[in-house]
Amino acid sequence: IRRCFPGLPPDRGWSSFVNTEDRSGSLPGTALSGAPGSRRLAGWKTWIATSDHVGRLLVSARQGETPFIVVPRDQPGVRIDSGTPKAYLSEMTQGRVEFVDVTVREAQLVGDDRTFPTFRSAESAYVRAALNAFMFAQSCRLGGPPALTGGALAGLFSAAAILQLPLPSDAAAVAMLGCDVHTQSLAGEFESFIQQADAGLHTRWMKDRRLVVGAAQGIATRAEAALTRIVQAPPAGGGEGKPWS
């Protein structure tokens, strides 16, 4: 959240990026209406991470569109429904929210055209940093082989290094592909290890395993586009030659 919205005031509590809308059309997506100074937010968003605990929502005016609105969960007209536990990532509460004629002050508008590209690029690195940190911690706890423990630490360092790069950028896109390939390969080794070492952990891991493979195609597509740009770029200083030389 901080990476995508650097201008947010440092309020205490959890914040959640709220963008997903109902594709079936049964629940109308959000709409921001009115002139500056008298805007209103109405409609639905259908997914909020940590819905029981979040203190403020970062809501896109429409799915994938600016501006974003900072909405405290206790603001009048905000109705959050966590519903029943979900099968996927069941330990995290996941809900939906209806906005009923919510007053929006101009000071609540945040974000710009870089917000979504930054979020998309940063999310992949943050998720893989967390996954590698988890594999490292569990491998240490269970006395895993050095190749597994060291591989997880290497993946964590790789993801952390990406988060120090400008996001989005071609360098980050290419590095993210390498980090993702490493993480997914290591995840297979981790699964085999915990199947023998901790059956309960293995069951929970497999239930949520698509977090490991999720977004892999998008990562590969963005890396391919970045590599095309890099290879076609003119060499530094002009003249003939490959840009790598």
What are the secondary-structure elements, in order, as H or E?
Answer: EEEEEEEEHHHHHH
Number of strands: 8
What structural class should be given to the helix and strand makeup? alpha+beta
- Termini separation: 38 Å
**Beta-strand level of the residues, as a percent range?**
15-25%
Overview of this protein structure:
42% of the residues lie in helices and 22% in strands. By secondary structure, the chain is α+β, with helices and mostly antiparallel strands. It is built from 6 helices and 8 strands, in the order ββββββββαααααα. The strands form 2 sheets. The chain has a 4-stranded mixed beta sheet, with no helix packed on it. The protein has a 4-stranded antiparallel beta sheet with strand order 2-3-7-6, with no helix packed on it. β2 and β3 form a beta hairpin. The protein has helices spanning 115-141, 146-162, 170-197, 199-207, 210-213, 216-232, and strands at 14-18, 31-33, 39-49, 54-62, 65-72, 78-81, 94-104, 109-110. α1 (115-141) runs antiparallel to α2 (146-162), α1 packs parallel to α3 (170-197) and α3 packs antiparallel against α4 (199-207).
